[in-house]
## 1
Amino acid sequence: MKNLFGISVFALFLRTCSLYMLAVILITANSYADTQEPAMVAIAFPSTSDSVISRSSLRAIFGMRLNKWPADTPVRVFVMKDDAPEHDAFSKNILQVFPHQLRMAWDRQVFSGQGQYPEQVASIQEMLSKIASTPGAIGYIKINEVTNNVRILQIR
Amino acid sequence: MCVSFKFAKTAAVIFVQGIILFWTTFAHAVNLMGNEMQLHGFLTQGAVITSDNNFLGQSNKKASTDFREIGVNASMRPTSDVIVSAGLLSHTAGATDNGGLRLDYGLVDWTVSSNEEGRGGIRLGRVKNAYGLYNKTRDVAFTRPSILLPQSIYFERTRNLTVAADGVELYLDRYYEAGSLFVTFGLGHPLIGSEAVKVALVGLTPNGRFESSAMPVFQAVFEGDGGKYRLGFTTVQIDTHYNPGVGDVLQAGQLKFTPKIFSAQYNAENWSLTSEFALRPTSIQNFGKNAPDSTAHGQSYYVQGSYRLAPKWEALLRYDVMYADSEDRDGKAFAAATHRPGFTRFSKDWTAGMRYDLTPELMLRAEYHRVDGTGYLPVQDNPNPSALVQRWDMFMLLASFRY
């Protein structure tokens, strides 16, 4: 009986190993093929940011780890609710980070005293007005909703 | 004595609940002297029932609710380079922790240099240790993968050894196109003066206290492809010395604990796979004839899969193993030498769990454990080794609220 148990544990171990291998294969296959979602862009307060930014810096900013623009202005990050379609599309397609991972990264920093949450807005209008009026602000919006008092950030 | 202790405990709980009420009446952020202060907290209540043995209270064939985590924290950014933050915690865990209010962390974080490619800085004060993937927020149910963290690495029994340290932590982040590298190096005094630590290290009988010299903690984590995979390495060196009590059975010895943890995680949109492996050598010296010099090569690992079935539902399956000494895995040599059960030297825990997020602020969880061995059970809840049962089951429920 003890042996049988040992064997079944071994079989499970093998299954786990094959899961690992499957994961490795999926890394390349599991790219973001969903084209139904709205096309999103990162937007910022016009005079405090550059107009081109690297994806890794954008990730660090929305991960609440980069708190200063090159010209020393404090960064103010604005996001929508975790389950908003805009948040989902921006996270997955532009940052290429899953929303649940962003939430986890924020929680881990806030509850160990190492960081703060981004500011949450309730609507597209609020997002636009906050970005247009707050020095250092950064957020996101559907590309067809961009107004000319915010700056689109091109990803390098 | 006992009455005043109970009174103190009740007073502490009421005090914390008062603070929470006060905290929640504010919004998430208040404006203080022109700086925005963020206030957050959590309240977690668990219930535990076991088929045999006791864990997190008197759980043997009845429900124990001596498993509670209440925390509040505040942070503010006086400039974009500085964060000042503090967190208070009341942690109730059976006979190992009475829920007394304590400073969980309290620190000043100064980002000395920061640009598009990365940042570097220093944290001063009481800092949570970067120990494996989960320690920094180990008492925050929302950030855990399960009700109970894998006990092979995140022991409830010896939590105070590695939970936090008073000192300094240097950090360096690099943001590359392929991923980000996070390196931390901490040097501080672990919180090991308590009775719970003494019991975890040398048992109930000795009546002394442990002290420690400054403990180095090094961690490097690489997060590839926007965090889709994470690879980590942690190494810690704890050097303690023992101050015997009056008429103590132990002499003034030294205990050295030098764990190393290897961590790996893969995150897909709907599932995550996590595994950590730890080597935990512990050596004791000069404790006298009742505890001859020895080294135990502790070893631990777990493999954990979680799957998001629907936006609010998540399932978990884990196999979690610890050996107190990998050169005596089944504890036979220990049993022969001490006449205590060999199965107290390992634990193999199969866990299946479910998480339901009622709202983003309220989470419910249920979890079933099938365990072989009693290696992770605290002796305070199980003072009589001959009453221990090798194969046991555990069912846990948890509700957690945060704001």
## 2
Amino acid sequence: MKSIKRILIANRGEIAMRIMRTCREMEIETVTVYTDEEQRFPHVFTSNRSVNLGSGPLSETYLNMDKLIEIAKEHECQAIHPGYGFLSERATFAKKVEAAELIFIGPSARAIESMGDKKGSKEIAIKVGVPVIPGYHGDDQSAQILLAEAKKMKWPILIKASAGGGGKGMRVVEKEADFNEALESAKREAMSSFGDDRMLIEKYIEHPRHIEVQVFSDSKGNHVHLFERECSIQRRHQKIIEESPSMALTATLRKQICESAVKLSRHINYLGAGTVEFILDRDGSFYFLEMNTRLQVEHPVTEMVTGTDLVEWQIRVARGEELPLKQDQIKQKGHAIEARICSEDPDNNFMPSLGHLHFIGTPSTSYTRFECGMVNGNDVLLNFDPMLAKVISWGETRDQAAYRLTLALEDLPFLGVKTNGEYIARILNNDHFLKGETYTHFVKTHAEELKPHQLTSIEKALMMAQVHWHKGHDTKGPSTEGSSRESEAWGQLKGFRNS
Amino acid sequence: MKKNISIAGETIEYETKNGESHSIDVLFNQFVYSFKLVFQDKFSLVLSDGVHQFKLFKHGDEIFYRGQKLQVSVIKPGRNKSHEESGGLKSPMPGKILKIEKSEGDQVQKGETILVMEAMKMEHAIRSPADGILKKLNFKAGDQVPGDVALAEVEETPNA
């Protein structure tokens, strides 16, 4: 068995914090990296060591493979955890890490290569008998051919980057006239996000649900699943609410879909954490979409319903250990829902929002996890993903989980930036959501119902009253005295700065 | 004294009375609502109407109440805030100009893409707010632009 005493986390934000937490519990040291503008971010000061990557473009910082490996060697790490995004699904990086005699906490380069490419992975799915969506995955990438192929299917069709993920380089086209503009724009986005602008065209399923299966494999030939997650609630093709279990699966369908996922992971002799994504149609037929060869943003919902720590499993598997549980020991208990808090304005077309984060807040509901990569005083930065944090609540029932999550969101003001927090609460309280009518076009279908609430008269009066107590307003109120006592106490602590 | 307040974009007239350090009466909709301050710290305050307590988070004009974020500001008398901007042609946020689709002098239709920006790893099409002529382009492809600046000018063609 290989020993891992120190890990380089080649990532930032909440996922770096998440990985660190497990490492700390496993008595493994962590080294993080950061750019100049992130000096005051928590992933920097929470790890055992942290290394500055300067201020260059991403290719010189979080995507700089050689530099990251060099840092890992210099600080005597035994392994690199890539998190999600960035280098997590770059086969070249996995190869380089291994060539440097370090452990890549993830699957083999070969598995990333075969599953990372949407086209290649579909061929594998077809081979093992897992259904796929009809579409064009050809090498001829001329606009005319792509359009001709699109016209063979019924509009609307979907243009998708072959190397894509996270909704980048993806466009739905409703009619022929919009095709060329959508294609060009998708290609540009794909080129800048993945350095690869190959596109595929697919039949667009009109009432789809996004169902994915968490799979896990060790090096001893064990391949298991940890049940499904439903991630149908999306905006701009990016997930904002994820849950487990899915309301849409019967016991039989759940078994079929989960076993299909394991069929794939077993066939490619996968290693570590992976997610097999499916589209579920209203009639119960499901199609393989892609496999993500990394830990997902939404892995905590699986952890909460199965009582596992998937980062711990990743590290154990990387050390060469056997999976802690066999398939029949893995149970799905209760219900968990995750909300992704993004800096954006849901009432203005989800426009990203920047700002200085004055006050985040802390959720106070039971069975709730808060995964946040920022602290009060940080700035929301232009160059990174707009996701600020995740909140995950568990309940005996789905309604209880949804209610706990709503309350948790009320504890999280994120003062200083616009967020989608309240918008998510509107969804969690929506009748269609509560009935489980969750399709991927949910936010479009129910746009009218998801408009902001009108304030009642007393709430309006409350707003009129509160302006009376401006910050800095000389109130002599009961708490003002309290807080000045507090600042005196801080003042007496020499060497501390209460900022 | 009559005042105007803007709550999430809506302007409402109201009056206040007895505005002391710990309490205030709000006259609005022909009712009097009395509130007193129960607690206040840097980013939150709790008010009571005598029965119920209301917790708010607050930073300047930004209020967070029961999960809802609201911009709340008293409108100063004598200031006319109604300056209308032809929407859509300002940069929504800092970013980079990826591509310019139209040239100065071009005929443009409402909704037509004039240029494409990239911000926070996402593309945003900047579209014409009206049918008209593209009078001016203030940037070229590759330029970094700050947020909320005019990117282009479209002169609206009056309807015949």
